[in-house]
Amino acid sequence: MLTIKNLHASINGKEILRGIDLTVNAGEVHAIMGPNGSGKSTLSAVLTGNPLFTVTQGEVFFNGKNLLEMKPEDRSREGIFLSFQYPVEIPGVSMANFMRTAINAHRGYKGLEPISASDFLKLMREKKELVELDSKLASRSVNEGFSGGEKKRNEIFQMAMLEPKLSILDETDSGLDIDALRIVAEGVNKLKRDDNACVVITHYQRLLDYIKPDIVHVLYKGKIVRTAGAELALELEERGYEWIKQQVDEE
Amino acid sequence: MSTEKTYIELYQQFSHAIQKPCAPLLNAPRDAAMDAFIRMGFPSSSLEDYMYTDLSSAFAVDYGLNINRLSIPSSPNDVFRCDVPGITSWVYFVVNDSFYIAPHQPALPDGVIVCGLNEAAEKYPNLLKQYYNLLAPNNEVATVAFNTAFAQDGFFMYVPKGVTLAKPIQLVDIMRSDVDFMANSRNLIIIDEGAKAQFLECAHTADGVQFLSNRVTEVFVGENATFDYYSLENTHNKTTNIASLYLRQAASSNVLVNEIVLHNGLTRNDVKIDLQGEYCQTMLCGMAIGDKAEHIDNATLLVHAKPRCKSRELYKYVLDDSSVGAFTGKILVAKDAQKTEAMLTNRNLCVTPTAKMKTKPQLEIYADDVKCSHGATIGQLDETALFYMRTRGLSEADAKLLLMYAFMADVIENIRIDVLQDRIRNLVEKRFRGELSKCTGCVVCK
User: Fold this and answer.
1) By residue range, what is the domain housing residue B422?
2) Long-range Cβ pairs for the range B376-379 (8 Å, 24+)
3) Across the interface, do B393 and A98 touch by the CB < 8 Å criterion?
4) Interface contact flag, A102 B392, Cβ < 8 Å
5) Which CATH number fits domain A2-250: 3.40.50.2300, 3.30.70.270, 3.40.50.300, 3.40.1000.10?
6) Secondary structure class of A247 (helix, strand, coil)
7) Is A240 exposed, middle or buried (0-12, 13-18, 19+ CB in 10 A)?
8) Has residue B81 been placed in a domain?
9) ipTM of this complex > 0.90?
């Protein structure tokens, strides 16, 4: 589904990603862990086309298409979704209007007619329940005045609405209490299918208690330095990142 | 002074013709107003109040004036297609400066008068003489003096004590001419004690010539009265629209003014609201959407003359292409106006690097126990929000549209007529989508 080869990216001339290689197949859950500043969020930003970052080398293919040539909106329409670490507040734009415009953009891309008002309301209602968001959500401005937990649940709600092929969850556990974490994780698990995939970016093991990864990668200094099964996450939880840093710095 | 000279000579030469069709009340202040105009001349950008908008050059065009009151060879109903379908209102027209009543109007409530200003001045001189030309600052504002000197007709409305109008009064101003043309229409609105009325004025251009409309409106809102004044401009790019509103509020009155410029050429809106009684409430707001080389200048003055009044002012601009916006918002709190609450906000978006916005919020406070604030911002669309929206699949254009539209939402919410609010919302969205890049039915704007 996703193939990243030798990806280098920088911001303001400073190189953050220094040769990432990663393959994600349908049905898989990958966890990308790593110490602060290792490039985890940069990877998600580059994959979604954030204009602040410049790709200097390498290539990314998504279902056979060159992802790096696509505009952010087309990446979304092709099925990539990013759950933001810091969801953006958009005063004055209602969730309903935002989501309807998004869904219709996706439908238009596939050559489908815009969604009917009743189908849209039904869809909103159905997906809202998945993450236990309050019923007034539709009329509220996007993320405005939402608590930290609501913002993250709102991200998963949008993910449910758009049904992406590849979801990237960037530090979705940060700022969540244990109940919110459970709701978010259950939401993600319910959306899991054989034909989609998920990349979970996280600093801590905590979220991985709820979302079980098939493969765990450690990102350090802009490179994937270790790849193993779920047991790697447990080891990191126990021992921290220092031992990996030391090993890598020595290599 | 060559432009001025043309009009001064015109006034002197045709003084008799100007006065002939008019009631004595309209004629009485003309000479003094002309003297004031001669002293001031057309306002150029060398004056502080006009530093962002030079009006003198706008008058330099060789406009025709209809001093002899020739009738216009078309009916306003044929020319005008209503911009607010579904609105139930009493509809009137002022074509250039001549008053018309739309056909098949239901009767107005007892005592309510709506007619042409000149007709009112002839029929009800005792009423009008208490009000006409009372608020117009002829000695300070040249365009107002010019209007007072030349005005021959316009719109008049009187709502007597305690009467509530169940529907809005809609006045459609249409500029209509086969040659470059100027009109100096004059409006007078009196809302007596405890009366309630909503008034919507929209400005349109019907022909592809250059127009200059120099309109003065005086409004008196009595004690405990409630009055909404909405103005909507949708004129073509060859229009100069100078609209000056002078409104006085008596004690405990409640006034909402909302001035919306959707499409225009060069616009200068002056608003002065005088709070001359205690416990007045005032909401003054406006929006301007500019593109191409459109120019919109709103100059407002809110005078808190008496204690315990509350005012709120909110103006927003979205400027695209090389459009220019200017805003001056002054709040004056007199020495005796203790317990005043006044908030002034002006927020602006420049969508392109070539769009320009100039803003000047001002507070002048002489009382010592007041709550006043003012703030102005000029910015661009939020890039973080744009990216966030695009990652959900919205095109850049749709994302911008939603953001610009959201930016204007709180001004639109300050419309207390539901169908009008819906219509304005719809028009603003269309305008941002580029579907209103021409004013409705227009051939001029490219």
Assistant:
1) 2-433
2) B376/B327, B376/B329, B376/B345, B376/B346, B376/B347, B376/B348, B377/B346, B377/B347, B377/B348, B378/B348, B378/B349, B378/B350, B379/B347, B379/B348, B379/B349, B379/B350
3) no
4) yes
5) 3.40.50.300
6) helix
7) exposed
8) yes
9) yes
Chain B residues whose C-beta is within 8 A of a chain A C-beta are: 382-385, 387-396, 398, 402-403, 405-407, 409-410
For residues A93 and A140, the answer to whether their CB atoms sit within 8 Å is no
Domain spans in chain A, listed from the N-terminal domain onward: 2-250
List of chain B residues whose C-beta atoms are within 8 Å of the C-beta of residue A158: 392
Residue A219 banded pLDDT, cuts 50, 70, 90: very high
Does a structural domain hold residue B196? yes
The amino acid that residue A202 corresponds to is T
Please report whether residue B443 resides in a domain. Answer: no
Chain B residues inside the 8 Å CB shell of A75:
391
Judged by CB atoms closer than 8 Å, whether chains meet at B387 and A84 is answered as no
Residue B403 counted as domain residue: yes
Structure pTM? Answer: 0.86
Residue B129 confidence (pLDDT): 96
Under a CB-based contact definition with an 8 Å cutoff, are residues B421 and B86 in contact? no
In chain B, the number of structural domains is 1
Euclidean distance between CA atoms B76 and B83, whole angstroms: 14
The pLDDT of residue B438 is 57
Yes or no: say if A161 and A99 are a contact pair by the CB < 8 Å rule.
yes
Quickly state the pLDDT bin for B70 (edges 50, 70, 90). confident
B415 neighbors B230 (Cβ within 8 angstroms): yes
Q: Which residues of B touch A91 (CB under 8 A)?
A: 406
Confidence tier at B79 by pLDDT (50, 70, 90): low
